[in-house]
Design brief:
Blueprint (H helix, E strand, L loop, with lengths): L5 H4 L16 H9 L3 E6 L5 H9 L5 E7 L2 H8 L6 E4 L12 E7 L8 H11 E12 L8 H5 L2 H9 L3 H10 L2 E16 H10 L3 H5 L2 H16 L4 E15 L3
Parallel strand pairs: 1-2, 1-4, 2-3, 4-5
Antiparallel strand pairs: 5-7, 6-7
Helix pairs in contact: 9-11
Length: 252
């Protein structure tokens, strides 16, 4: 499985404005209705954008925020945002938190990076309190084959087939790890956007797919984009599919 060099990506990651806007997580609201104080873990927190957004939404609430990430460079960016959170430099397979200490674990757009996904699920289960919630959100490659990254650099789609667990496998493994009340929700979006915006996004090379792929394949894709632009094309169709999975740790 190819790996993304987030030491490089960290320098441009937040230039993608789509990564900066996290809506209010209603799961936190529900947990606060039942508990005076909760602990929220953002696993593979990156530059801390989820934590930053939720802290604004829940300002003044009694919440302990924790961010774990394998990349010290990404964590440095997160720490610079003065989040008043505990940051831990560790992998998803090796982090150590007190057993049964976390109310909510979120993992946004990151599970495909984990080398030992089964071990990661075991670590999460141990860290959660009884009845605690785990939420995954990610793109779903097999439902978005027309995504611009795959269209212009098709080798990335093949690599993602190794990295991403499909929905049914994900649910199967969650059940094996004793998670209950598992639900899955899919979203799909299409929109035409300016081609010059695509060229800018491609050159920024901040998606994990373009960052991990070799220069030869990357440059071939770049040539395809510039060729379309030179032929007078002004728009491209952007498609994206999201998969959100929610589950809970057993209460007994």
């Amino acid at each position: 499985m190819l790996k993304t060099d987030y030491a490089k990506v960290s320098k441009v990651y937040d230039k993608n404005k789509g990564r900066l806007d996290f809506p209010k997580d209603q799961e936190i609201e529900k947990l606060l209705e039942k508990n005076e104080k909760i602990t929220v873990l953002d696993l593979a927190c990156g530059t801390g954008n989820y934590l930053l957004g939720q802290k604004k939404h829940y300002e003044g609430k009694n919440i302990k925020w924790i961010g774990i990430d394998l990349s010290p460079e990404m964590l440095d960016v997160a720490k610079s945002k003065n989040l008043e959170a505990e940051f831990i430099n560790a992998s998803a397979e090796s982090f150590n938190l007190e057993e049964g200490s976390v109310d909510l674990v979120v993992c946004n757009f990151a599970f495909h990076h984990f080398e030992d996904k089964k071990k990661c699920l075991s670590k999460i289960y141990a860290a959660l309190k009884k009845g605690g919630v785990l939420k995954f959100r990610n793109v779903e490659p097999e439902c978005m084959k027309e995504w611009w990254v795959y269209k212009y650099c098709p080798e990335t789609y093949c690599e993602d087939m190794f990295r991403f667990w499909p929905k049914d496998l994900m649910i199967y493994e969650l059940k094996k790890n004793n998670f209950v009340n598992i639900s899955a929700k899919r979203e799909y979006y299409e929109k035409f956007k300016p081609l010059n915006e695509l060229l800018e996004n491609y050159k920024r090379r901040d998606t994990s797919q373009l960052a991990m792929i070799g220069d030869e394949f990357y440059n071939k894709g770049l040539s395809r984009v510039t060729q379309e632009a030179s032929q007078g094309e002004s728009e491209y169709k952007d498609v994206i599919a999201f998969l959100e999975i929610r589950c809970e740790k057993k209460t007994i």
